[in-house]
Amino acid sequence: MRLITHNMLKCHVKNCTDPNQQFPLRFKEVQLEQIEAERNDEFLVRMLPRLDWPALLTSTKELGIALPESVPASPENDDEFLQALHTAILETHVKEGNMVCNGCSHEYKITNGIPNMLLAEHEI
Questions:
Q1: Into how many domains does the chain fold?
Q2: Rg (Cα) of the chain, in Å, rounded?
Q3: CATH no. for residue 91?
Q4: Where are the beta strands (DSSP E) in the chain?
Q5: How high is the mean pLDDT in each 10-residue block of the chain (124 residues)?
């Protein structure tokens, strides 16, 4: 699972104690894998408004990945920023582990890079 995907996932457990804590899901005991991907600067710039930057920063810090604290005024002209963003959201894959909701502590398993977001009937 790429971090770009993780930036869009949140907890949907019916009785989650605090809806403000459902996003971002916290990583637990993850195995990372770097998979090289072709860089597309136009795609990266277009994705920036869709990303929740504070959530992405939280997640990358958990994983030990360095990203700038803020998006530059002209990201399309900042090669270093675009490379860091590309590496973080498109080349870093979570292969195994769990994502945990900060609100209700529900764990979502990641197996072979695929997050299992299905809930049991009593959680819906």
A1: 1
A2: 15
A3: 2.20.25.10
A4: 26-34, 92-100, 107-111, 114-115
A5: 95 82 94 97 96 96 94 96 97 97 94 92 68
